[in-house]
């Protein structure tokens, strides 16, 4: 699989440019295909839980602050089992070190942690924690840290309807309304995986899925084009396998910001097998699946 380094961002494919206003469908509720066994919410080991960001999340997970998850009818939804995924990490086509993604499910709570080592400036860290609500994944806290820079966090203050307010450490004065179903940059992949685990009869080729997405200082509606279910070699370590490719669409009227491509793998219970993010400068960060392992229980405390 080729990796390219760009000085400037290449043009966006014409089929990924939004030229007219798209109709955004209202969020749909979910119906759990299999209810996870109830346990106490997962906690980070003591060395990490002392982090002020971790303390911010306490009381958020499973606290009832998000939309109620009941026995409603809706889209079939099944969370992937807990696991650790390892990836080859590339920056501008240059291989870094092995990145890890910890996906922990305990009852209706989840934690998603990503560590991308980078020798020059220190690791890139991302973490999302939350619970399930009537619309699926409901992040409570999302934070990022690059090297020795201070962490940046986004806090979801959800109400009983699944809405609420956002709070950003980078922009304290910016408190936009949360729409039901709002995700962060990484939870959105597991929302898609859980929907596909519930039913693979969704998001046929050419369809567009709208998802409200939070980053460290923004809340925007992202539109993803689905290329459907295909047998490809887009994830080299899996060989020829059934994958789903989603690509972020760009509005013609807006300046180019970021291009995001996600490949979800059926052999991985629709977990991400490849993730590519390209900034407006042309800088590309790419993660390519390497190995899957059971979650290390030593990372949890009872």
Account of the 3D structure:
There is one protein chain. The chain has one domain (about 45-295). It is built from 3 helices and 21 strands. It has helices at about 45-50, 50-55, 185-200; strands at about 15-20, 30, 45, 75, 85-90, 95-105, 110-115, 125-135, 135-145, 150-160, 165-170, 175-180, 185, 210-215, 220-230, 240-250, 250, 260-265, 270-280, 285-295, 300. A 15-stranded mixed β-sheet has the order 12-11-10-9-8-7-6-5-20-19-18-16-15-14-13. A two-stranded parallel sheet has the order 1-17. It has a two-stranded parallel ribbon with strand order 2-4. A hairpin with a 4-residue loop joins β14 and β15. The longest helix has 12 residues, at about 185-200. This is DUF3108 domain-containing protein. It comes from Polynucleobacter antarcticus. InterPro entries: DUF3108. Pfam families: DUF3108 (PF11306).
Q: Which spans of ≥5 residues are poorly predicted at pLDDT below 50?
A: 1-9, 35-66
The neighbouring-strand order within the major sheet is: 12-11-10-9-8-7-6-5-20-19-18-16-15-14-13
Helical proportion, percent range = under 10%
The count of DSSP E runs of length 2 or more, i.e. the number of strands, is: 21
Shape: globular
* Class by alpha and beta content: mainly beta
- Taken together, the total number of domains comes to 1
Gyration radius, rounded: 18 Å
**Sheet with most strands:** 15 strands, mixed
Mean pLDDT: 83
N-to-C order of helices and strands: EEEHHEEEEEEEEEEHEEEEEEEE
Strand content: over 45%
End-to-end Cα distance, whole Å, is 42 Å
**Number of distinct helices:** 3
